[in-house]
Amino acid sequence: MTSNRLKIVASAFGDPKNGATASGVPLNFFKELSKTVHIVHTVSSNRLVFSDFFRGIVDPVKSISRIKFSLRPEKKWARETIEIFSYRLEKELKSIPGFDVFFEIGTNFCINMPRVRHFSRSDMTIVQAARSGFFRGGKLSSLELDEAMYTQKLIYDNCHGIFVPSAWTKSS
User: Fold this and answer.
1) Coil, helix or strand for 47?
2) Does residue 137 carry a pLDDT above 70?
3) Per-residue model confidence as pLDDT tens digits over 62-103
């Protein structure tokens, strides 16, 4: 019976139910989590739509080669991108009845829904990505890096809790 359990909406950058998303981490993480909570809905944090071509956040080359919209890496943590994606997510979340928590893998949204608690699971911070070169963090310009760090801080400040898998991530 799920009526007593916490009801959450689960999110990842890609389909959280697809084993190919982030090497299967979201699929397996949420599968384990569902043993103690009720996952009422899943969403991809990749919220690209056709009009995003005109905003300059879509990578046209990758989009054509993959036959789906691909986000420009330097725009992933841009404040404008986070605001657009968060707005689209909030519209979707408002149509989902009776959930308590939004839980995302990563830092992709800054939601403003007082009744919903926001949690994040993060492998690394933007600072760590830049230092290590992971997730194209080392390829961001100084200005893009500053904006990404600022945006990630906004997201973390919005979270009720942040889960990290290592002391290395926690130290950042």
Assistant:
1) coil
2) no
3) 777 766 788 887 888 899 999 999 999 999 999 999 999 999
Could you tell me the CA-to-CA distances from 6 to 1, 43, 89, 99, 102 in Å, in that order?
Answer: 12, 17, 20, 8, 11
Q: Which residues of 50-83 are buried (b: 16+ CB within 10 A; e: fewer)?
A: eebeeeebbbeeebeeeeebbbbebbbbbeebbe
pLDDT tens column, 139-171 = 788 898 899 999 999 999 999 999 988 887 888
Beta-sheet pairing, 38-44 with 161-163: unpaired
Distance CA 122, CA 170 (A): 9
CB 120 within 8 A of CB 104: yes
Measure the CA–CA gap between 45 and 108, rounded to whole angstroms.
Answer: 6
Q: Give the whole-angstrom CA distance, residue 12 versus residue 107.
A: 9
Structural tokens at position 119? 């949690």
Tell me the three state secondary structure of residue 149: helix
Token output for 57 = 């956040």
Whether 99 and 41 have beta carbons less than 8 Å apart is answered as yes
The stretches of the chain forming alpha helices (DSSP H) are 25-33, 52-55, 60-66, 79-93, 126-132, 142-158, 167-170
Q: What pLDDT, on a 0 to 100 scale, did the predictor assign at position 3?
A: 67
